[in-house]
Amino acid sequence: MVEKNTKKISSCFEDNINYMDGLLPVKQSFDIIKREVEVGGKDAVFYFIDGFIKDEIMLKLMDSFMGVTEDMMPEDASGFAKKYIPYVEVDVLGDFDQVVRNVLSGVSCLFINGYEAAIAIDSRTYPARGVEEPDKDKSLRGSRDGFVETIVFNTALMRRRIRDPHLVMEMTEAGQTSRTDIAICYMSDRVDQKLLENVKSRIENLKIDDMKMNQQTLAEELFKRKWFNPFPKFKYTERPDTAAACLLEGKVVILVDNSPAAMILPTSILDMIEEANDYYFPTITGAYLKISRAVITILTVFLTPVYLLFMQNPAWLPSMFEFTAVRDAINIPISLQFLILELSIDGLRLAALNTPSMLSTPLSVIAGLVLGEFAVQSGWFNSEVMLYMAFVAVANYTQPNFELGYALKFMRLLLLILTAVLDWIGFLAGCILILCFLAFNKTLSGRNYLNVKLN
Predict the structure, then answer these.
(1) What is the C-alpha separation between 449 and 278, in angstroms, rounded?
(2) How do residues 120-137 score in pLDDT, each as one tens digit?
(3) pTM higher than 0.90
């Protein structure tokens, strides 16, 4: 919970300024600006953050203030804001906690001698990149815009799609130090009120110092999940059209400032493997895409463990699939080959993230040759093992959720190890464990991945 300073602003101008100078490191921080001016014959002080202010707007405001004479000054701050501030977003603040929070968020705050309040002028502008399609969550036919790191831009992208007064976006904050903005978005006439109250209560009662990892910090604090269950509790999307569709379905969308993605809840395993392309095509095509993605997702988990099970029990292999058996000499156990390749693929993935773009293509070709033709010729791996692992590595990208991809990978590793050690008994035990992970993965809404309500 963020500690609040409830001290009220007094009519003594010197006390207000001295108190603000004590709260804000005006002299130590170069970007916290204290601008002393004179308005209507009275002393006044602006507090604002350099880099957040639109210079043109502030110049026009200062020019307007210069035309106010002493006999024109109203009796209170509200009257001054109504008459002499020609700007849209203006508020009157009565305590120092509100003032400090607004100043550190980029809002300009004006203190005028004799007024028992400060005037907040929201003329800020955020450093932000252009709105563009996310790299991970692409669509063949849909819109090409995506969320950015600025929360106000993200709410506007959804508001543009849903022009309904029932769309509510409540702003709150978390973190005693970071005071990170959080927007809770929902359709008031469609949302599950019990779920909504649960989410609000958890966010309001957060007791953390900062949210340096943005949504990940929020997710871990909202729901303490068991470390041994890798399946994600929340669905993430970088597409505003996907978030808007979820809002219309009655779900809650959470936006965190500085994060270009939205958290969606409640969720299930079927929600996790959905993507925008399923809805931008005709019904038959969309259904085919969903079914094919579900089948491929299942194959990514079971293909290599099932192959290992048949290679350990060749008599079980149907005659029509005898050609899949390993014919070459096996220098390293097949189970160990699969485990080594799993680690190697992750190593290549991590290397690709840190490879300069100008070198990514030639290094990918070299890595493909080394782990392909030469790896088989050297005797480390069999060609059949390389083939099935290549399919698994590529097919893992058919679903857009990164966390779910690694959860499926861990389930595959579990099956491989148990099958290698305990043969068919291990394979059966692994399948039961996977079902348990799914069935008992309770989410924030009180429902599990199989959408069965738990007590």
Answers:
(1) 20
(2) 999 888 777 777 888 777
(3) no
